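Re: [help] complex structure
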Amino acid sequence: MPDIRCTSRRLIHAAVVLLATLLPGFAHASFFVWVPVTLDKKTGASCGDGSPYTFFVNRNPMSRNLSVVFEPGGICGSGDTCAGDDGERTAFNPNGVPTNYMRAVDQGFAASISPMTRRLAGGVSSTEWNMVFLPYCTGDQHLGTAVNAYTKKNGDVRIQHHVGLNNMKAVADWMKTHGFANPPKLLVNGMSAGSMASPMTYAYLRRTLNAAQGYMIADSAFWTPMPRGASEDVAPAVKTFEFYERVHGWRAKGGLLDMLLAQNLKAFDPLDMGSIYRANSTTFPRDRFTYLGFQEDENLPVSGLLLNSSVQAIPEWNGAARRELRKSLYRSELMRTLEGMSHLPNFGYWVPLWRAGNSHCVTLVTFLGTSIEELGRNDARLAIESTLDDSKPMIRAIETDQTGDYSRSRWYNFAFAGSERLFATLLDLAKGVSRK
Amino acid sequence: MNERSIGAVLIAVSAIAFIAAAGGWLGSEEADPPARAAPGEGPSLQRLEQIGSGLAAASEAQSGGGFPGMKDVVPRGLTAAQWQVLQDSLKDHPQAAQELARIAEFFGSKADFDAFDAIRAQDPNDRRLAAMARGLLPKVDLHLQRGELTGGDAMALRAELLQHTEPDETRRAEEMAQWRARQAALVPAAAAPDPGFVAYRRAEEQRVAQYKALPESQRDPAALARQVQALRNDEQ
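Output below.
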């Protein structure tokens, strides 16, 4: 008598194979084109509003290397910020990711407007590789495993699926079974929220895909050393991090912490998420890691210190004092984090002071304005290319000139001379001003 | 990949080069610039379709022919080894010739952008840049329409190229706004919403309405979240 369960499994498998061959861009892969892939909800993947999660693949048959790119786009932990009703504090894509997302010219293309994904012109070495782009629609830095019912200011309720970690895992599984396993080189990278996701998901992605050699480039957001229970005097961002830890479910069963513990990372301290850089560096000593960011970042002092007591204690009307305190606390946190990185032999960083137009995210739109002039004309591309070239030393550079960049406010005159307004529009769009 | 297919591809690539050259695309510093489009006008859709259909037609027309000796000719921007890998990768593709032609054109454009960048890096005021930029602008649209370029990247590249073709900032901004409006209309429709998700949202709305009808003291957001999550998991 035939084994019905076995036969059913075979039939299902055959159906899956048949379906796979019928899917466009699958059996006859479209090369050098952004192809959407929508995940089944059974994978646990979804966007914040519960809609199916779509990511994008751009194949190059001439390479077996792989770049995994996490899209940036803020963070949310309330009904208004998650639903897209709180202006610039809104996290990206509150209403999900459409399958034509990469083609949009009027919204939603923050990370797809970057030399890190631009294959046609001006890209970096990893744009010659296969690329997988993970859009951001869960408001949890791609790291959540929680579903919350938030009450908005107007009394409405927003159900928010903070399931970015599920999305990442489902994409990793998909990549593993669709020709992306065993890459000789794997780069995990992202801006802002993607910069937070990159180190946390690094080991999981590297091992799931069985990469021979790994690289990570995190741009403009970092995990500061933050022993659990630390006071704000020691770790000024601690309250903000603890808040998101709770609402995004980092320590929930099957959450971020469980995933990290399952990786058995050397030197990882589960009571200090800021130990992730040391953990990756120590666990994968041949791999190469770089942090990029501006000293005068315009976003991180606000988002990272959202719940800092000293900042909150300054009345709203005294905006200048709030800004100054945030700035000062952010700078000290950045320097503390970089100091930790400086002890890791396979870790580099490139930290210019500031650039006009957009001083958050070094790899956004263009590398123009990311030079550290003390080192000549080189910009952040140098640090990225050095990271990706095993024969080069890791670059550690922090701009010491604390005034020069301000006098170079027209840094974009090279490519955008006389088009400040146009460029500002680009940046506004890239920053997600009209993302709903 | 047999010789006939290779020949078809090479003819298609040649056709592109011819079309581009006819439009001043390969023009040197001395070449006459192409006819000036009206402000805000990029390449017309029709024009892009002509390039695309010309490509396909060239491929098709030559698929019955053979071009001995041409198989060693490698498209611009690719090495011989890369070209071979591409041919091998697409050997079972039902439209292999068209795909190879498209990819060859992509790498040709990439080589042209690289050349533009190299000259600009040396001297942003080099006189050749204007003609090159005029030739590159329609390429941005073409590769965007083919999905080889994202909307954001197309916009960024276009903004850079406009610096060299339109001296007036206001007109540049107008051109870009008009271009965005045109491109927005060309974005292919997204896939229809998943029926399971639509059903889930209806059920979620009902559950939330029931929740909001409760006295505040009886509302438990954690319980609501669990109920809704169960709805999502149960959706058909």
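The mean pLDDT of chain A is 87.
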